[in-house]
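For reference, the entry.
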Amino acid sequence: MHVKAVRRSLAATLVSVLAAGAFVLGTGGAEADVIGSMEVTPATGTDTQGILLTTSGACPDTATNIIVTVKGKGFPDGGQNVVGNAPTTIYNTAPNGGMEVPLTFTMRDYANVAGFTTLEGRYDFTLTCRTAFNGTSLGDFTAPIWFTSNTTYQNTAPVTATTTTLAAGPASSAVQGTAVKLTATVAPAAAVGTVRFLDGTTQLGTPVAVSGGTATLTTSALAVGTHTLKAAFTPSDPAVYGASASAPLSYTVKIKPPAVVTAAKVTGTVRVASTVTCSVSFSGASSTKYAWLRDGKTVSGATARTHGLTSTDYAHKIACRATATNTTGSTASTSPSVTVAVGPALKNVAKPSIAGTHRVGYRQTARPGSWSPSATSYSYVWKRDGWTISGATHSTYTATRSDRGHKLTVTITAKRTGYSKGTATTASVKIG
C-alpha cells in the first residue's frame, strides 16, 4: 500500500508540474522547421535515469520559452509534454551555444502518467522554441532514443539483426560439372549489402549484391567430393544492419558417370571356331562388364570381353554390350550386330582306311579316321584306279570282278554344322 501511495504521489506531482506550464498533454503548437538536433545524455541509460537534452544551437532571438514533447509507442499520437512552457533563461548555455535542458522526471515516470508499462522502440523528443503566450513554433530541435528493452535505452539507432539462409539447386548433391545455383536469403529483405559464397574458407566468385532479400551465384567449378558451403552477409552500413552467416550446407559433388570414348564393336574373324573381342573404351569407369547377344538375346554365361564362336552361332547375328560403372552410375554401349560366317574346314587328324578282305566278292568297309573338330556325318565316294565308281557312295562296298587287279580308294567328306567340309582319301588297296 505504501508503494502505491508513493506512485500516486509521484504521478500527481508530475501532472502538477506540467500543468504549471499550462500543457499537460498535447504539442507546443503548430509544427515548424527543424532548426537543429539535440544530444541525449547519457548516451545509454535506463528508464529510471534522468535525461539531459543539449540543443545544437540557441533558439531564435524572438523565442522566450520552450516546450519539450516526447512521441512514441504508448504516448498520445500528438506527443506528451515532458517540459512545460518554460522560460529559456532558466537553462544553462552549453559550450556549443545551445541550451542544456534536464528533464525533471524519468521515462518511466512519463510512461506511468501516459498509462502504459512497456517502453520499446523509438521515442522522439522535440524541443519547440516559442513565446510564452503564442503557441506558434519558431523552430524545433529534435533527438531520438531507442529502448532496446523495457528498462534500457540508447541514443543511437540499434543495429537491426539479420539472418542469412543458404539453399542450393540441385539440392544436396550434383554430378561433376553441373551448374549449381546457390541462393542466399537475407532477412529483413530491406537489408542492403553483399553476400560472399564460401566453399569451406575459399570464396566462390566475387561478392554478390543483395536485391530484394536475395543474392545468387551459379558455379560449375565444385570439385568431386563433399563440400561445406556457407553464405556470409556483409551490410553496407554496419550501423544499421548486422552481419550474419548461414548455417553450413553440406553438399556432395559426384564423379561424372562413365562416358563412351570409343563405341563398342565386335572385332576379330567373325566365323565359327574363332574368338572375337568386344572392343570399347570409356572414361571415368571403375569397372566394366560384358554381355554377348545372339539375335538380340543375351547368351547365357557369355560375360567375358572375348567370346568363342561355336556352331550354335553360325548364321546368327552376334553383338556385344559393354557396361561401365563408377560410384555415380553406369553407361552402356552396344555394338552393331555381325553375322557369324561358316568355320574352317574339318581337319583330318587320323587318316581314313579300308578294312576287309580285299578280294572280289568281299565287303570293303571305309573307316573315316579322326577329325578335328569331330564330324557329325560323312559321305563316301569309292574309286577304282582314281575313277569314281558309279553308285558307290556308302561306307561299304562289295568288290566285283571289275575290281580284280585294280586299286580301290575311298574319298571321305567329313561334315559338321557351322564348319566347312573336310575331305581325305584312304590309301589304296588292290583287289585280288
